[in-house]
Amino acid sequence: MEREQQLEAWVQQITALDEAAQKAAANHLDDLTKPPGSLGKLEELTIRLAGITGKKKPAFSRKAVIVMASDHGVVEEGVSSFPAEVTQQMVHNFLAGGAAVNVLARHAGAEVICVDIGVNGEPDHPDLVSRSVRKGTANMAKGPAMSREEALQAILTGIDVVQESVKKGTQLFVTGEMGIGNTTPSAAVTSVLTGVSVQEATGKGTGLDQAGVQHKANVIARAIELNQPDPNDPIDVLAKVGGLDIAGLAGVIIGSAALKCPVVIDGYISTAAALVASRIAPACRNYMIASHTSEERGHVALLQTLDLSPMLQVGMRLGEGTGGVLCLHLIEAAGRIMDEMATFSSAGISSNHEMSEAEL
Ligand SMILES: Cc1cc2ncn([C@H]3O[C@H](COP(=O)(O)O)[C@@H](O)[C@H]3O)c2cc1C
Ligand SMILES: O=C(O)c1cccnc1
């Protein structure tokens, strides 16, 4: 089957959330010994997780963060404060268990799946998922980052990695990435798909100074001008000014939604991928849990466009899936509330249902 049709078949699998399960979860939350709604976003999260899984009290014993690693040709324009070889070096760090995401994933009981979807090198490790589409993108300031077929292949790879992991029992995914320079294609994708200016979408990434950010914005504006991505064709946008990591994550999100797994969205790059995914498959938006607000400029515009409200605001701007994995503690907490809290009747506490209309 053609790649475009394969993707369409996955998109067609994504259904609306289970309303009956959501209602059952909401009713149970209202029976618990607390004023209705008083657990705030934990309650909204619980209801959404019920809708995604179709279970009033979903449990996620097996969770995985998928770290899509790839290189970006545009780095030769001087858009990052770190050299491109750090991508491959960090891949080895993930596989050795020493990166921030490894520490936070261990703490949250999640597996780290590191995927080479386009590293410019020869990373090698028994635990590496080697699914390279090409060895880094081309420099988007000089031409398209990749072909449409390569973008489709990267999306389908993301779906495939999810499918393989679901077969092993994974029930919930977190998006993560590693790719020096990847805030540059993320900003390009953000500007094209949300309509905010390149300036508003461009931030300091790993730590550019003001002049560096201005230079980065100029490179992005040039790439958009040169390649003319079609804002109504998300795959065209990915191919011309995107990245293999972003495309792979769009696939992770579409695959998670198709297989009824919640997908926790990390920071700026992951949310750019989430917007691409939602433009390809609007129904996948409801399967996304926004974890945190990144400090990277443009993240808020992405979240607003997706109408997602993140759980955490902790000033992070790292990526890798770190903010997403941190949010797993809240998902676990929401589950414990549903499982362990007493109800008004079990604890013998008067609920406001017992008050008369006049008293209320
Ligand atoms: C050591 C190190 C570890 C990282 N982990 C995530 N990133 C993050 O920084 C990069 C994006 O920023 P920019 O577009 O400015 O290059 C990505 O690799 C992202 O995952 C890292 C960056 C570095 C240097
Ligand atoms: O929010 C992110 O994901 C991010 C921000 C800056 C650099 N790397 C990642």
Structure explained in plain terms:
The protein has 360 residues and is α/β, with parallel strands linked by helices. The chain has 15 helices and six strands. Strands 3-2-1-4-5-6 form a six-stranded parallel sheet, with helices on both faces. Helix 12 links the parallel strand 5 and strand 6. It is globular and about 70 Å long. The N and C termini lie far apart (62 Å). The relative contact order is 0.17. The site of alpha-ribazole-5'-phosphate has 18 residues, from helix 4, strand 4 and helix 7. It catalyses: 5,6-dimethylbenzimidazole + nicotinate beta-D-ribonucleotide = alpha-ribazole 5'-phosphate + nicotinate + H(+). Its EC number is 2.4.2.21. Pfam families: DBI_PRT (PF02277). InterPro entries: Nict_dMeBzImd_PRibTrfase, Nict_dMeBzImd_PRibTrfase_bact, Nict_dMeBzImd_PRibTrfase_N, Nict_dMeBzImd_PRibTrfase_sf.
List the defining traits of the structure above:
360 residues; alpha/beta; six-stranded parallel beta sheet; globular; binds alpha-ribazole-5'-phosphate; binds nicotinic acid; cobalamin biosynthesis; transferase; Nict_dMeBzImd_PRibTrfase
Concise synopsis of the structure shown:
The protein is of the alpha/beta class and 360 residues long. Helices cover 49% and strands 9% of the residues. The protein is globular.
What ranges have pLDDT less than 50 throughout 5 or more consecutive residues? none
- What count of helical segments does DSSP give? 15
User: Which cofactors or ions or other ligands sit in this model?
Assistant: alpha-ribazole-5'-phosphate, nicotinic acid
Instruction: Describe the sheet with the most strands.
Output: 6 strands, parallel
Principal-axis shape: globular
Total strands? 6
Q: Mind telling me the C-alpha Rg? A: 21 Å
Helix content estimate: 40-55%
Structural class: alpha/beta
Gap between N and C termini, in Å?
Answer: 62 Å
Strand order in space, largest sheet: 3-2-1-4-5-6
Mean pLDDT: 97
How would you classify the quaternary structure? single chain
Function: Catalyzes the synthesis of alpha-ribazole-5'-phosphate from nicotinate mononucleotide (NAMN) and 5,6-dimethylbenzimidazole (DMB).
Catalytic activity: 5,6-dimethylbenzimidazole + nicotinate beta-D-ribonucleotide = alpha-ribazole 5'-phosphate + nicotinate + H(+)
Protein name: Nicotinate-nucleotide--dimethylbenzimidazole phosphoribosyltransferase
Active site: 320
